[in-house]
Amino acid sequence: MPDIIQRGLYYEEFVEDARYLHRPGRTAAEADNVLFTTLTMNMQALHLDAAFADAQAPFHARLMNSMWTLSTMVGASVAQLTQGTLVAQLGFGDITFPHPLFAGDTLYTESVIVDKRLSSSRPGQGIVQIAHTGRNQDGTVVATATRSVLVHCLPEASA
Question: What per-residue confidence (pLDDT) applies to 31?
């Protein structure tokens, strides 16, 4: 029997307008928030100071660091879309956080392939634009972002 290796998609395998549901979701923990926030030197009281956030902040609770939300949302897509086929991350755009994410919420991510084109300067590689959406357990959108990635073409297609 052949070995089957889990991997992301090659350029030719991306289908425009296809929607990928990345599962399982990821339940955000308070420890995630504290660790990520302190590792990235973001001393925002909204993430670290319960007395401040509970009493003075508009949501009366500490918020998950939005960069944790973005990173986790993109990370959830890797195994299904870009594991082992990514050449480089090219950029992000249109990042929004329309609703807060809190410790105890579960983040579910979906990705839509918006556009793709072969690279004009890198034979055997293509550029894919992906729109990511993160929702909490209630289906409320908590984050969106578009991402451009450079991926390999199928090995036999680039030979």
Answer: 96
